[in-house]
Amino acid sequence: MERSGSPQAPGKDKPKPPWRSEGLPGSPGGRPKINWWRFVVTLLVVYAAFFVVSSFVDSGSVETISYTEFTKQVNAKNVKDIYAQGLSVEGNLRAAAKNPDQGNETYTKFQTEIPQFANTDQLDQQLSSGQVEITSKPLTRGFFSNLLLSLLPVLLLAGLWIWIMRRGASMMGGGLGGLGKSKAAKPVEAGRVRVTFDDVAGIDEVENELVEIVDYLKDPGKYRRLGAKLPKGVLLAGPPGTGKTLLARAVAGEAKVPFFSASASEFIEMIVGVGASRVRDLFEEARKVAPSIVFIDEIDAIGRARGGAGGIGGHDEREQTLNQILTEMDGFSGAEGVIVIGATNRPEVLDPALLRPGRFDRTVQVGLPDAAGRTAILAVHTRGVPLDGEVGLDQIARTTPGMTGADLANLVNEAALLAAKRGKEKVGSSDFADALEKLQLGAARSIVMPEEERTRTAFHEAGHALLGMLQPGADPVRKISIIPRGRALGVTLSTPDTDRYAYDEQYLRGRITGALGGMAAEQVVYGVITTGAENDLEQVTMIARGMVGRWGMSERVGPLTILPGDGAQPQASPATLATVDEEARRIVDECYERAVQVLSDNRDKLDAIVKALLEHETLDEAGAYAAAGLPAPGKFSEN
Fold first, then answer.
1. Active site residue 534
2. Where, by residue number, does Zn(2+) bind (predicted)?
């Protein structure tokens, strides 16, 4: 197997830049690389030597004389000018004189100090009479002061020049000042990846798809002997919170190989070419420590199908980044020994070139866990949570259909928070029930409603509940509440006893009828309709349009997909779309008529539920059915 570099431990080799630069110092085809430290030191040494020599030359012509010699020259009117600062004096003579203190050495420039006891007024008169020009000017500074002040501008200019040169090199190679460097260049070392398949529960069928990859990374020779090749990429597709990232970390933890993690959005920048540079950098680092795993989360951010209206030809930043990923995964520079694991919530929008064999060889669907899977997930997340003996994870799993692993982890955490807030030593069933109610129904709001509004809300929720109780095959009513939660003034919760994966027309019509129960109850009791049914109507519209435009449950439209599920524009004529709207309206009208009829025929049950709600505000499953005078779920007749 060919590799661009031999396997090395992470962090022991300084990573090379992920770019080629031409025409820059040190780059292929450029000038020889400049040693900046040697250049700066040489500049300082030359400048200091020049400064020292010039200082000695200048200082050699200045004679230090005594104050007596100075006054003698002043009285002789031989002093031309002086420069004074404090008691220090420096000046020039009109004619050369001899200094008796220095062996009668001739001088014209001198410096001296005026004693503290000297009569400065008399000296000033003597200087004035001698027509001496007097100026107040700083004397020559010390050697180090002069050196520092002289070198400071040079150092600033040299530093600015070095910064500009390095900035230019990074702009040429790294995308404007290092923007092209990958933010995921450092791997998570195998010893620090503590997630294994023991931490992943509820999705055993997905684990089985990935165990083969782990086995290959542990013992590649077993597969090479039979001519099997390592998959280039695995795409994990599924709803948010189902454990796609956790699975990728578990693969790295089980295989004990370096794990590179990055989000697809990190590759996208406003400047074209930065994303491709980051991809090259990431794969180069991964190849250095191969075999390794590169995990790209939310890959649909850069892997969308090309050719849309979002880009401009081939110069779009997103397309260039995608092209670079395609090249790195299966091109002339194939990343041998590097497995790419991608995660997305929307696999239908990915580019076909990304999904073909040789790129992402496998697409693994990570779905919602079933009841047994939820029980296993709860067991994982409650490892460090002290549970009361009455807590049954099986019961909690049965009451949480449709919840993902992340939802269940949040449920356990909310229950633990509630137990701690209540001062308990262990988490009990009531804590889980209240936490589930908070997550499913929303947090309660402390507002005071007028009695009339409270009664109207009770009839609205009782209408939902009673229709759910009377509809054949409907989900059992779990809880009714007229306590305001979130944006809702009341909530009715219905969940199935077992997980459901397919729905027939009768069940969907029952869902629509139950959703219209609140509006129908207000119509039956008050003869008016309020704005409280806004959310109900949104659900009704979505289900009815799906029945007609997606699932073929209308004879007029037939088994056709008119309304794509991914939110794309419908590919149908205006007449067909009008037929879809007419059929959806027909289904809703029929369900609404049934809702009004059922509630009118069972007005006594409706009033009984309302009375119990006004008294208790919240009814659980047993209380709701007892108030309506109906048997337990599943035991009532289909009349």
1. no
2. 460, 464, 536
Q: pTM for this structure? A: 0.62
| Burial group, residue 634, by CB count within 10 angstroms (0-12, 13-18, 19+) | exposed
Confidence (pLDDT) at 251: 81
Tens of pLDDT, residues 13-70: 444 433 333 333 343 444 445 566 776 777 777 667 666 665 555 544 677 888 788 8
Domains of the chain, with CATH numbers? 61-140 (3.30.720.210), 190-365 (3.40.50.300), 371-441 (1.10.8.60), 451-628 (1.20.58.760)
11 carries a ligand binding annotation: no
Q: Is 239 annotated as a binding residue?
A: yes
CA distance readout (Å), 524 to 150, 469, 607, 612, 625: 95, 18, 12, 19, 21
Residue 81: strand pairing partners: 92, 133
Q: Taking the alpha carbons of 210, 212, 218, 223 in that order, is the dihedral positive or negative?
A: negative
The one catalytic residue among 63, 461, 522, 583: 461
Q: Is 238 annotated as a binding residue?
A: yes
pLDDT at residue 182 in the model:
46
Give start and end residues of each alpha helix (H) in 382-489: 393-398, 405-421, 429-441, 451-470
DSSP per-residue letters across 363-410: EEE-----HHHHHHHHHHHTTTS-B-TT--HHHHHHT-TT--HHHHHH
477-481 and 79-85: which strand pairing? unpaired
Tens-digit pLDDT profile for residues 506-559: 889 988 998 998 899 998 988 888 888 888 899 999 999 999 988 889 888 888
With a cut of 50, list the residues of the chain below it in pLDDT.
Answer: 1-32, 59-60, 139, 169, 171-185, 190, 309-315, 332, 334-335, 634-639
Contact 182, 279 (CB under 8 A): yes
User: What's the pLDDT score for residue 56?
Assistant: 57
pLDDT for the residue numbered 572: 82
Q: What is the model's pLDDT at position 27?
A: 39
Q: Using CA atoms, how far apart are residues 248 and 253, in angstroms rounded to an integer?
A: 9
CB of 396 closer than 8 Å to CB of 439 = no
Q: Is 381 labelled a binding residue?
A: no
Place of tokens 């309302």: 610
Residues 6 or more apart from 522 whose CB is under 8 A from it? Answer: 456, 459, 460, 463, 528, 529, 530, 532, 533
Distance between alpha carbon 103 and the CA centroid of its chain, in Å? Answer: 83
32 belongs to an annotated ligand binding site? no
The answer to whether residues 290 and 337 touch, using CB atoms and an 8 Å cutoff, is yes
Number of residues in the chain: 639
- Phi (first) and psi of residue 293, to 5 degrees: -125, 130
Q: In this structure, what token pair is assigned to residue 266?
A: 């990190």
